[in-house]
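Bumping with the actual sequence this time:
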Amino acid sequence: MNDSNFLVFACYLPPENSSRGRDAPSFFAHLLAQIYLNDECGAMWLTGDFHSRIGSLPDKLNDIDCVPMRNTIDKRINQQDGYDTHQVSRKDQRGGGLPIVYQKNLDVKLVKNDCQSTHFELIECKIAIKNQHFRLGVIYRPPPSTANKFRNSIIFEEWSRFLDRTVVVSEELIITGDLNFHLDDPTDNDAHKFLETLEEHGLSQHVAGKTHVHGHNLDVVITRKKQIYFV
């Protein structure tokens, strides 16, 4: 691989007792296997929602299914050798939030979130690798429910505003995360509308296949068209 190549691992581990099912040991074993298989790549980004503490050795290996809820990451203990973390906590709620775990030899700077979204969570970073510059955005959109009272009309308004201001950044663009649209279902009107917003902004969604235990594609990796080729 040359100096311009890198890997992005976008992951989602359901919470304990989730109806989606949860096999945390197999999840982490598979994730580590993929990392080791690609250890010749000098730059890796690991991002997503793990519903567990990050980096504390006992939590990660022994108590992964009963990890206490945390609002923030304690960088004194939640940090492995050679890696660092940026994290944004969920506002006005316990738990949740989005982390980005990265190798310390990468120049990764957290971007202040001016999106003011109410229906999705967002963390953004600027990343410099040699003479290349990237803008990485990680998003989680909870599905609408009677508890959160989220409405798809509002998510599309906020999503469009986010894309309007994001597509004009000078860096190469990567947006990834879990948006909870059934992108594999051609009869899903909301999924179709979401894909239309990408087309309108000159963006492509690269994840193909099922990413959910019940057989749907909920997760995305989005770039500008012809920016990055995914196999």
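The tokens above came from a reply further down the thread. Strands lie at 7-12, 44-49, 83-88, 98-103, 107-111, 121-129, 132-140, 172-178, 203-205, 219-224.
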